[in-house]
Amino acid sequence: AQFPTHPDIAGVQDSLGEAYADMKDLTKAQEAIKTDIEKYPGHNGLLRMITRVAVETARAGDPNKAMELTQAIFDQKPQGMDLLYALTTKARVLIHQGKEAEAQKLADEILVQFKSNPKETAYHLFGVGEEFYSRAFTDNSYGQLSENAPVMLNKAIEFWKQPFFQEDPKQKVKVMYFTGMAYLYLRQYEAA
């Protein structure tokens, strides 16, 4: 690069990784992570990019690779709110590994550990419920329901019923919308 020491290079690399994840080119997204970790370890934004790629990798059907990526987040030794990011990412990937009870246990631990930041905690834990919701579909487009859709939609609804989601108006609205959509997919129109 012409400006290899410019402070914005790491952020550009993050954006590149996220763009590849959005385009579902997970191989290039994972290469971007590797480059980012090698050249710009510990920089602001790295954890978000790894999280994005890990979740997309899990949703694409490779939850074990996603868990490897999640470990890369912990290798950066996150602290404070970055640790919240790391732990919720792990819970999200656990759902794709079929370890829902372990994900719920981790969510419960997150609630205790980050109780002093209820809005941030609710924001990140919403994503855990979103993984149940996403598993109800055969792809990431939320169009075609999978065979296990009723089970996954009900798990999402149950997860989002937890009281801490009601404390933040933004999360409450998101929970109401997605819970309503889940009930519609379940053809439970009265509940929606």
Q: Largest sheet at a glance?
A: none
Number of helices: 9
The CA-CA distance between the termini, in Å, is: 53 Å
Number of E-type strands: 0
Average pLDDT, to the nearest integer?
87
Overall helicity:
55-70%
Q: How do the SSEs run, as a string of H and E?
A: HHHHHHHHH
| SS content category | mainly alpha
Gyration radius (Cα, Å) is 17 Å
Shape: globular
Strand content: under 5%
Low-confidence stretches: none
Q: Characteristics of this structure?
A:
single chain; 192 residues; mainly alpha
Structural features, described:
With 192 residues, the protein is mainly alpha-helical. It is 68% helix and 0% strand. It contains nine helices and no strands. Helix 3 (46-59) runs parallel beside helix 5. It is globular and about 60 Å long. The relative contact order is 0.08.
Draw up the topology in text:
Blueprint: H1 9-22, H2 26-39, H3 46-59, H4 63-75, H5 81-96, H6 100-113, H7 118-134, H8 149-160, H9 169-185
Could you give a quick summary of the protein structure above?
The protein is mainly alpha-helical and 192 residues long. The protein is built from nine helices and no strands.
